[in-house]
Design goal:
CATH architecture of the largest domain: 3-Layer(aba) Sandwich
CATH superfamily of the largest domain: Glutaredoxin
Oligomer: single chain
Number of strands: 5
Strand order of the largest sheet: 1-3-2-4-5
Structural class: alpha+beta
CATH topology of the largest domain: Glutaredoxin
């Protein structure tokens, strides 16, 4: 009876009023009007006297739904892993490192700029890490334009130089500033502008956005560290902590 009351109560909470009840499918059949009124009263009393049971049930449902979504995202990661780990994406660090960090970012994202400083520190401190960059321009037209120029810089083997310049630049990313940053990064400006207009650059960005959506990465920054997805800013200590956990787990597996 308690389970029945809980199910009905949860259904009741989704309606606009305590007086409008849709009975659960497993409600006892053949109830009279008086019996149904009695059930309504029991449910209302149960909710008032056991609010924690209702809230715990809702919270557990949310936890279960989140866990299911995470499991599905990890499963989908397998379908994108070959691309994300390929030479098609810009990368820096040790390609033979035991830890791969894939970052989804936007050049207009303040937390992405902070994450870039964390990555610089990490690359300096840990020579066994590789970082792979996935442009994910979601914060306006200037983000999209910066991503196009940045990916075009890869054709001159200058992606990380231009990426660094963009991440350290705090002004408006318009055509003039992009040109200035490109020249400071020793890029051939004419070739860069032409490459940035290539449809394959747009196709690459659209693929990045599609992969992010498929993995449930809705904002920036987002990280994939080895086989785990992390949404949001982690900070240097957070990145290092995840890396330490990965390596400690490998040690434990080797010791067994």
């Amino acid at each position: 009876m308690t389970r029945f009351l809980t199910i009905c109560a949860l259904g009741l909470l989704t309606t606009s009023s305590l007086t409008t009840l849709s009975y659960a499918e497993d409600a006892p059949a053949g109830l009279t009007v008086a019996q149904k009124d009695e059930v309504n009263t029991l449910i209302e009393t149960f909710i008032r006297e056991n609010p924690n049971v209702i809230m715990d049930s809702i919270q557990q449902h949310q936890i279960d739904a989140q866990a299911k979504a995470e499991a599905e995202a990890v499963e989908k990661l397998n379908t994108h892993k070959e691309y994300l780990m390929s030479d098609a994406l810009p990368h820096v660090g040790n390609p033979k490192g035991d830890v791969k960090i894939i970052e989804f970012f936007d050049y207009n994202c303040g937390y992405c700029k902070r994450a870039f400083q964390d990555i610089l520190l990490l690359l300096e401190a840990d020579k066994n890490v590789e970082v792979i960059f996935v442009d994910m321009p979601i914060l306006g037209d200037s983000s999209l334009e910066a991503a196009k120029w940045s990916l075009a810089a890869e054709e001159q083997d200058k992606y990380f130089d231009f990426h660094t310049a963009l991440m350290k630049f705090s002004g408006q990313k318009d055509e003039n500033s992009l040109k200035t940053l490109a020249e400071a990064s020793r890029l051939d400006l004419a070739k860069l502008e032409e490459a940035a207009k290539d449809k394959k650059i747009v196709d690459t960005i659209e693929k990045h956005l599609a992969v992010a959506r498929d993995l449930g990465i809705g904002g920036t920054p987002g990280f994939i560290i080895n086989d785990q997805i992390y949404r949001g800013y982690l900070g240097y200590d957070g990145l290092k902590g995840v890396i330490d956990e990965i390596r400690n787990a490998k040690k434990d597996d080797a010791a067994e």
